[in-house]
TrEMBL record:
This is Diguanylate cyclase with PAS/PAC sensor. Residues 4-77, 127-199 form the PAS domain. Residues 203-256 form the PAC domain. Residues 285-415 form the GGDEF domain. InterPro entries: Biofilm_reg_signaling, GGDEF_dom, Nucleotide_cyclase, PAC, PAS, PAS-assoc_C, PAS-like_dom_sf, PAS_fold_3.
Length: 415
């Protein structure tokens, strides 16, 4: 196998997508190593489609149903479907199968693990159901306000959802206003004012309020003017407080998970690519990028298990994160690949960061004995937006150049 072929196979093996080529007889002509990470099965265990069916669907009845679905998809040119499969560990995952027809009846399958996405949808569905039950159960507070004399009547639920008894509260607007988070208060008051002046059809605002325990709780506040005097001034506004704290926290968690790598807590490839697009129009030049690839991770996984491999990955992430500034962006963009974006950083300072990471790894290897030393091949490049001062012109080319330099290190024989 030539060097180019080896490089191509290495790149394919690093994909998070499981790639499979099958012939007309159902023989697997090619599969990348992602099969192990996604399913726990090895290439030796899955040599034919029949092997796959038996492993992924141990129940004979389910297996036959899936085989019929699969055949139906092929015959009817349905090239995208999600299947629930059984892994080698005995748990379940959801895979999205996409296929393309090749020459001589061969089929190329691209298979993506969407289990996390399915789980998030289920969690959101359950959260919605819980909120509906909460509202049905009375987890909603009612208020009735007369702006003319600043008298407010709250119901028991309004007080109780904040940890108070109704007798603890004064009947005026300051009772609510004093509980609103300082960062949210101005917008809440503006929304109230706009509605009183007839600029909006209703008042609606989401803000945090301090409950009796001292914690902050997210509230959706909705109200409407129901009466005005002869001059058009509001004399009665009725509304509700809805507890949306769980909804907000779940949304924040999902947003965090969508941008972060679950194993290391670093940013993920999706967020990294978005940052590249954003920074392409940035004024924070020069911008440097460092790309790193762990060495011998496959050997570690094969000989010591994936739990040991995960330990190496987390150690590498810690070493990189500890070597950069808080404003720098560190991402895990592949199984064993990392990338760093360094705003306001020239090439010389980027190389200093590379040196710090390598020195940190050397120190870690001395402190903690590992079966194989933890090393990372690193490449760096800089862009200042105008192709000057040891710089490429744009940030995408900067990333590609750093990646090339990393691979030069990778295949230099040093590791």
């Amino acid at each position: 196998m030539g060097r180019d072929d080896q490089l191509m196979e290495t790149l394919i093996d690093k994909l998070s997508t499981w790639v499979v080529i099958v012939d007309q007889q159902g023989q697997l002509l090619f599969t990348n190593q992602t099969i192990r990470e996604m399913t726990g099965y090895t290439e030796a265990e899955i040599k034919t489609m029949e092997d796959w069916y038996k492993k992924a669907y141990p129940d004979p009845e389910s297996r036959e149903k899936v085989k019929k679905h699969f055949q139906y998809d092929i015959e009817n040119n349905i090239k995208d479907r999600t299947y629930k499969i059984t892994t080698a560990a005995g748990d379940y995952k959801y895979f999205n199968f996409r296929y393309s027809n090749l020459d001589d009846g061969k089929i190329l399958f691209e298979i993506i693990d969407i289990s996390h996405r399915i789980k998030q949808k289920q969690e959101l569905k359950e959260l919605k159901e819980r909120l509906e039950l909460a509202l049905e159960g009375g987890n909603i507070g009612i208020w009735d306000w007369n702006p003319a004399n600043d008298t407010v009547h709250f119901n028991d639920n309004w007080a109780q959802m904040l940890g108070y008894e109704l007798s603890d509260l004064d009947n005026n607007l300051n009772t609510w206003l004093d509980l609103v988070h300082p960062d949210d208060k101005d917008q809440a008051l503006k929304d109230v004012k706009d509605h009183l002046e007839g600029k909006t059809n209703k008042y609606q605002n989401e803000h945090r309020v301090k409950i009796k325990s001292g914690d902050w709780k997210w509230i959706r506040d909705i109200g409407k003017v129901t009466e005005r005097d002869e001059s058009g001034n509001a004399v009665r506004v009725v509304g509700v407080h809805i507890d949306i704290d769980q909804e907000k926290r779940a949304a924040e968690e999902i947003k965090h998970l969508s941008n972060h790598d679950e194993l290391t807590g670093l940013y993920n490839r999706r967020f990294f690519n978005e940052e590249l697009k954003r920074l392409n129009n940035s004024r924070k030049y020069p911008i440097s990028i460092i790309v790193g690839d762990m060495n011998r991770l496959k050997e570690i996984n094969d000989n010591y298990g994936h739990s040991m491999g995960d330990r190496y990955i987390k150690r590498a992430a810690e070493a990189i994160q500890d070597s950069v500034r808080t404003e720098d962006i560190v991402a895990r963009i592949g199984g064993d690949e990392f990338a760093i974006i360094l705003p306001d950083t020239n090439y010389s300072r980027a190389e200093d960061v590379v040196d710090r990471i390598l020195k940190r790894l050397e120190e870690d290897n001395k402190i903690e004995e590992l079966p194989i030393p933890l090393t990372i091949a690193l490449g760096s490049e800089t862009t200042d937006g105008n192709n000057q001062n040891h710089s490429v012109k744009d940030i995408r080319k900067c990333y590609n150049k750093a990646d090339e330099k990393m691979y030069e290190q990778k295949f230099s024989g040093r590791y």
